[in-house]
Write a structure and sequence with these properties.
The protein has 430 residues and is an alpha/beta fold. Helices cover 28% and strands 22% of the residues. The chain has an eight-stranded mixed β-sheet, sandwiched between helices. It is globular, with a radius of gyration of 25 Å. The protein starts with 9 loop residues before the first helix and ends in a 15-residue tail after the last strand. The chain binds adenosine-5'-diphosphate, iron/sulfur cluster and magnesium ion (MG).
Length: 430
């Protein structure tokens, strides 16, 4: 290790570039392939989950080497729950969620291996790949069901409550990590929606709020008329607590406050009634009072849409308020997970304990806030021992060995740390 150099020679750089272009070609070809849905159809390990990440690896093939941004992540999101994903900046939270949306920055970023199982409801397709509409029927004089016809003798497609066409659907568990880009389009936005950290960069400054809401509605709800989509957009603005929805509909993003813009982003996410909302640091760009309002809104909405939320944040306070389950990430791996009580009342991993200690509290008189010593290891050159070892104050002899496996401390609480090897299932490890 002593002679480790901090530069890349020309021949090394050439070798990296060659290897990168080979890998990128391979993964891009896989994403663009034409294949039958059966190829990426799978089954859930537990039917109560909406998403299951299973040993997910997402890498960036950079000029300096391969960045293992997500390096073997496994966790689930149970239906109807809020799962908080916490960890300091750069630990792979956003890349995990972007993998779920197939939005990792390509071509350098690629899902390399693992699975993301998602319980989807997809459009049924005919032999030519077209959606199959459901038609209006009437019962004739003989009691037989007949198709209802319009003035020109054509069958009439059934409409849903919003005015969109009704198509035949099927429930299917898909592996998003293996899905081609084309197939993903019918899930992204419709079944899984995302709320980003900075609404100003996600909203287009040259279009009105109404334009941007309508555009999403028209894209995902086939057969809806312009008047119907406008009414639906205004309803969504009402749902997210905007007092003057007709006024805001006509405004441009710069005319709104940060909190209002984030509400608009939430309205856009809700347009297609998604089953899962990913909120990536949804309150980080907002001031504290507005933060609380947006969190209240998210909680309220989760109840209304009967869906699940994956809440990404570096702020433990936010997860404490919102989450049912918590996943703690460090350097591209999940190092501890459990229910919110497990993580807040009985944190086990020295990193989680460090995070808790570095959280400011209102009632305690602390002179200096705790700071976890040291730095996250270089993502291009990860050690083969515990990634936290060089910062860990509780390190034991065994920690020099290979990366620790998970220890199931209680049925709900798991940790990857050698300190708890003798604490399996007794829940009393300290
Ligand atoms: N587009 C990119 N190109 C190269 N590396 C990236 C890119 N996006 C993220 N990374 C790297 O992936 C790692 C995880 O990033 P990210 O998931 O954004 O962290 P966070 O937990 O703060 O959301 C970081 O080391 C980051 O440098
Ligand atoms: S495995 Fe060892 S080095 Fe890693 S967090 Fe646990 S005690 Fe610290
Ligand atoms: Mg992030």
């Amino acid at each position: 290790m002593a002679d480790k150099k901090h530069y890349i020679s020309r021949s090394e750089s050439r070798a990296i570039a060659k290897e990168n272009s080979r890998a990128i070609r391979h993964f891009e070809k896989l994403k663009k392939r034409k294949c039958k849905p059966e190829e990426y159809t799978t089954v859930m390990q537990d039917d109560h989950n909406i998403v299951e990440f299973d040993d997910l690896h997402t890498y960036f093939f950079s000029d300096a080497g391969t960045v293992k941004a997500v390096n073997g992540v496994s966790f689930s999101i149970p239906e109807g729950s809020t799962v908080g994903v916490v960890g300091e900046s750069g630990c792979g939270k956003s890349v995990t969620s972007l993998s779920l949306m197939q939005l990792v920055q390509a071509p350098s970023g690629q899902i390399v291996s693992g699975s993301i199982r998602f319980k989807a409801s997809l459009f049924k397709r005919d032999a030519r790949g077209r959606k199959i509409p459901v038609y209006e029927t009437v019962t004739d004089a003989d009691g037989k069901e007949q198709f209802k016809l319009d003035a020109k003798g054509r069958k009439i497609i059934k409409k849903n409550e919003l005015g969109g066409n009704v198509y035949e659907m099927e429930d299917r568990v898909v592996d998003i990590a293996k899905m081609p880009v084309d197939a993903m389009r019918s899930i992204r936005g419709r079944e899984i929606a995302m709320i980003f950290q900075e609404p100003m960069t996600s909203l287009n400054p040259v279009f009105t709020i109404g334009n941007q809401l309508d555009e999403v509605g028209l894209l995902h709800i086939q057969g809806i008329s312009k008047a119907q989509v406008k009414a639906h957009s205004i309803d969504m603005l009402k749902l997210v607590g905007i007092a003057d929805p007709e006024g805001v509909y006509k405004k441009y993003p710069h005319e709104l406050s940060g909190g209002m813009r984030q509400r608009v982003m939430i309205a856009i996410a809700l347009l297609c009634n998604p089953k899962l909302i990913i909120a990536d640091e949804p309150t980080t760009a907002l001031d504290v009072t507005i933060q609380a309002q947006i969190l209240d809104l998210l909680r309220e909405i989760k109840g209304k849409i009967n869906g699940s939320i994956m809440l990404i944040t570096h702020d433990l306070g936010v997860v404490a308020e919102m989450a049912d389950y918590v996943v703690v990430m460090y350097a591209g791996k999940v190092i501890e997970m459990g229910t919110a009580e497990d993580i807040f009342d009985r944190p086990l991993h020295p990193y989680t304990i460090g995070l808790q200690k570095s959280k400011p509290t209102v009632n305690e008189d602390v002179e200096k806030l705790y700071c976890i010593p040291g730095f996250v290891p270089n993502p291009i050159d990860m050690p083969n021992y515990c990634y936290f070892r060089d910062r860990c104050e509780k390190c034991i002899e065994k920690c020099a060995g290979e990366y620790p496996g998970y220890i199931q401390v209680t049925p709900t609480h798991k940790v990857a740390c050698y300190l708890y090897e003798n604490a399996k299932e007794d829940g009393d490890a300290k």
